[in-house]
Amino acid sequence: NAGVTQTPKFQVLKTGQSMTLQCAQDMNHEYMSWYRQDPGMGLRLIHYSVGAGITDQGEVPNGYNVSRSTTEDFPLRLLSAAPSQTSVYFCASSRQMNTEAFFGQGTRLTVV
Amino acid sequence: AQSVTQLGSHVSVSEGALVLLRCNYSSSVPPYLFWYVQYPNQGLQLLLKYTSAATLVKGINGFEAEFKKSETSFHLTKPSAHMSDAAEYFCAVSEKGTASKLTFGTGTRLQVTL
Predict the structure, then answer these.
(1) Are A50 and A31 in contact (CB under 8 A)?
(2) Taking CA atoms, what residue in A is nearest to B106?
(3) Can you tell me the distance from the alpha carbon of B6 to that of B109, in angstroms, rounded to the nearest whole number?
C-alpha cells in the first residue's frame, strides 16, 4: 500500500519559474491538504480539499494554486517561484474530518 | 482562531529518563488534538490523538498524552526514553467540524543521550 506519494523529492527552481508538485493517494480519502514546513515555524496549511472539485485556502495560500479533478490527485502549482517559497512541502490525506492525516515523504524545494 | 504553543524547541534527556514534551492549545470550541513525530528527512507519523473520548490517550512506541481542559494542555510523555525516540515532535489541533485543517505547533526536537 503506497499511501501518499509526492514527486519530486527534490527540486531547484530559478526565480520566476513555474512548476507543479504532485501528490497522489491510493486510500480513497476525501480530504487532502498541502503544508509547508519552515525552520522554527512548524507546518502551515497552504490549501486543502474536501473532495473532488472542491478546494479552499489555508493559512498561507499566496503564490500557490491547486485543483482537485480526481479523488486520488491533488497537485500544487507554483505560478512564479520566489525565494520565499524555498521550503519543504508536505501533502496529507485523511478519510474523514478530524481523523488521522497521512503524510507523504515531502518535497524539498529550493528557489534561487 | 486556534493556535498551538510548544514550550521548548529543544529537549534533551538521558536514555531511560522520563520524556515530557509540552503542548498548550487555544481553541474556541472543543478541539481534536494530535501528536506527530518526524524522523530526519521523512514525513510525519501519527503518535496519538484525542477525540473527546478518554482524556488519557495511549499511542505508539510507549507514548501517552493527557488532555486537561482546565489547563488547555495536551502534554506528551514517555516513562523511559530510548535512543530511537530522537526526532522532532509536533502537536497539532483541529477544531470539530473543520475539514482536517491542522494547526501545528512549532515543534520540539528531542535529543536522547547515553
Answers:
(1) yes
(2) A42
(3) 11
Nearest Cα residue in chain B from A6: B43
**Residues of chain A neighbouring B34 (CB-CB closer than 8 A):** 100-101
All three cell numbers of B84, joined, read 530511537
Place of cell 527540486: A11
Q: CA B23 to CA B31: how far, in whole Å?
A: 13
Phi-psi bin for A74: left (phi > 0), alpha (psi -120 to 50), beta?
beta
- Candidate from A40, A58, A103 with C-beta closest to B101: A58
pLDDT tens string, chain A, 112 residues long: the values are 679 999 999 999 999 999 999 999 999 999 999 999 999 889 999 999 999 999 999 999 999 999 999 999 999 999 999 999 999 999 999 988 778 899 999 999 999 9
HSE-up of B96 (CA within 13 Å, CB side)? Answer: 7
User: What contacts B19, CB < 8 A, 6 or more positions away?
Assistant: B11, B13, B63, B76, B77, B78, B81, B85, B110
